Amino acid sequence: MAAPNYQASDFLKAIQALMPRGLAWPRDPTSVMAQAMSGLSPTWARHTARNNNLLVDAFPKTAVELLPEWESALGLPDPCAGPAPTVAQRQAQVVARFAGSGGQSVPYFIQYAALLGYTVTVTEYVSARVGQSRVGQPVFRLGPQWSFVWQINAPLNTITQSKVGTARAGDPLASWGNAVLQCELNEVIPAHTILIFAYT
């Protein structure tokens, strides 16, 4: 739950309640002291709102103002996302890089793609070997080098819709494509493997 944002009038009341009693400390709204405090109260209200927003902006999934700092720390933005990625796409890349702990398993790469906003499956190519191949497993007679090839299966176009609250002026209502998926997965694959993409 977000912290409440107080209005300027709330700060004016609070400051007046803290003032000492007496003729030198008038509560009359037309007094010079009350007018001076009324002039400062909007600043305190703005500071409180910005401080409360910092609690939301400190997390990569919801960061907007601090998004450039997150990107800088994680080596982003990169050319993968194109010339003008949306805030949601930038947040997804930050979350994927931040939460990606590394791995070489199929579930790891499926989860990494999901953090980027893509739904994928993985096909592994394994040369046929006696005692190791299972019933129903595809058999490839293309040579032992295919043991280091795996395929990412994804929709032809993954559509990313803009969300109210994270979209900024100038962001498209929707964007599509798999450039970020390809670029990011090629960055994190083990060095000895070859990655191919199949879109349906």
Structural description of this entry:
The protein has 200 residues and is of the alpha+beta class. The protein has two domains: 8-57; 67-199, no CATH class. Helices cover 39% and strands 11% of the residues. The protein is built from six helices and five strands, in the order αααααββββαβ. It has helices spanning 8-18, 32-57, 67-73, 87-99, 106-116, 179-188, and strands spanning 121-124, 149-154, 159-161, 174-176, 194-199. The strands form two sheets. It has a three-stranded mixed beta sheet with strand order 1-2-5, with helices on one face. Strands 3-4 form a two-stranded antiparallel sheet. The model has no long low-confidence stretch (mean pLDDT 82).
Rg calculated over all Cα atoms: 27 Å
Distance N terminus to C terminus? 41 Å
Q: Taking all residues together, what is the mean pLDDT?
A: 82
Instruction: Estimate percent helicity.
Output: 25-40%
What's this, in brief?
This protein has six helices and five strands. It is of the alpha+beta class and 200 residues long.
What descriptive keywords fit this protein?
3-stranded mixed beta sheet, 5 strands, alpha+beta, rod-shaped, single chain, 200 residues, 6 helices, 39% helix, 2 domains, two-stranded antiparallel ribbon
Structural topology:
Layout (H helix, E strand, L loop, with lengths): L7 H11 L13 H26 L9 H7 L13 H13 L6 H11 L4 E4 L24 E6 L4 E3 L12 E3 L2 H10 L5 E6 L1
InterPro entries: Phage_Mu_Gp48
Protein name: Phage tail protein
Organism: Paraburkholderia aromaticivorans
